[in-house]
Specification:
single chain, 165 residues, alpha/beta, Rossmann fold, 3-stranded mixed beta sheet, 6 helices, 6 strands, 38% helix, 18% strand, elongated
C-alpha cells in the first residue's frame, strides 16, 4: 500500500549527455545534476533504492554490449545492490532484433559490426533473469520519459514517508 506522498527531486548523472529534463510537476520539484556511481537517474534520498539507466538508441546499447562490455557489466554488478533497477530503451524491440539493419551505421561499416540484435536480446533477457533488472522498450524518447516519470512517482509513493529534497 502506498505511503503518504511527499515531494521528491530527480537526480541526473553529470555524465548523462542528453537525457531527460524533469521540471516541477505534481510531487516532483524538479531535478539536480550530480555524479551518480551507478545509473543515469535516481531520486534524492533514495539513491540506494532506485537506479535508472537510459539507452538512447540501439547503437548505444550495441557499444555497451560490444566494445564497452567490461565497463557495462561492472555497472550491472553495481546495480545488483538496488531493489529497483531499470534499463530504459528509447527504441523498440524490433529495432533491437533487426540490428544492425536500418541503423545510422554507415553501410560501409556494417560488415565490421560484430554484435547482432539477437545477441543483444539474449544479453538483455539474461540481465532480466539473472540480475533482476527491468528492461523496458519504450519506442521513443517521449514515451521513455513518461515511463520513468511514472516509476519515480511510484517509488516516491512507496518510500515517501519523508521529504526527499
Amino acid at each position: 500500500m502506498p505511503k503518504k506522498e511527499t515531494n521528491y527531486k530527480v537526480i541526473k548523472d553529470t555524465r548523462e549527455q542528453e537525457g531527460w529534463f524533469f521540471r516541477p510537476f505534481g510531487n516532483c520539484v524538479g531535478m539536480e545534476q550530480r555524479k551518480l556511481d551507478t545509473g543515469d537517474y535516481s531520486i534524492v534520498g533514495l539513491e540506494d533504492k532506485i537506479c535508472v539507466e537510459r539507452k538512447g538508441c540501439v547503437e548505444e546499447l550495441a557499444l555497451n554490449l560490444g566494445q564497452d562490455k567490461a565497463r557495462f557489466f561492472r555497472e550491472v554488478e553495481r546495480m545488483n545492490e538496488f531493489p529497483h533497477k531499470f534499463i530504459i530503451c528509447e527504441f523498440n524491440a524490433e529495432e533491437l532484433i533487426k540490428f544492425p539493419k536500418d541503423t545510422r551505421i554507415p553501410v560501409k561499416n556494417k560488415a565490421a559490426v560484430k554484435v547482432t540484435g539477437r545477441y543483444m536480446l539474449k544479453q538483455l533477457v539474461e540481465l532480466q533473469l539473472y540480475n533482476d533488472i527491468n528492461v523496458v522498450f519504450c519506442g521513443d524518447r517521449y514515451n521513455a520519459f513518461l515511463f520513468v516519470s511514472s516509476i519515480f512517482k511510484r517509488i516516491n509513493e512507496r518510500y515517501g514517508d519523508k521529504e526527499n529534497v
